Amino acid sequence: MSEDLPVIVIAGNPNSNDYSANRVLHHTTGSPDFNQQLRAFKEVTCAQVSITHVEEAARLIDFALSTALAQRKPALI
After folding, report:
1. Which residues contact residue 5 at a Cβ distance below 8 angstroms, ignoring those fewer than 6 apart?
2. What is the pLDDT of residue 36?
3. Domains and CATH numbers, the chain
4. What are the respective helix, strand and coil percentages of the chain, to the nearest 5?
5. Given 22, 56, 68, 77, which is the most exposed site by the fewest CB atoms within 10 A?
6. Residue 75: DSSP 8-state
7. Residue 71: which residues within 8 A CB-CB, separation 6 or more?
8. pLDDT at position 53, please?
9. In Å, what is the CA distance from 48 to each residue of 1, 11, 30, 37, 52?
10. Which residues have CB under 8 Å from 25's CB, separation 6+?
11. What is the DSSP letter of 6?
């Protein structure tokens, strides 16, 4: 029944310095691809947002929350 609840998953992103350094990080598949988690959650959530710039935070969080509530499905921030 949890797939019909507006659950919000809040997960951390790599440090912003890691994006340009192309580093392989822990909890990855060994590739410097920072969208792995987003793609995995795409299969089980109605919205997935990745906040990489503070200016976008309010808009992206609002999108994820409102989509989860409207669709009564989990979302990832």
Report:
1. 72, 73, 74
2. 78
3. 8-76 (3.40.50.970)
4. 45, 10, 50
5. 22
6. E
7. 6, 46
8. 87
9. 20, 11, 22, 10, 13
10. 14, 18, 32, 34
11. -
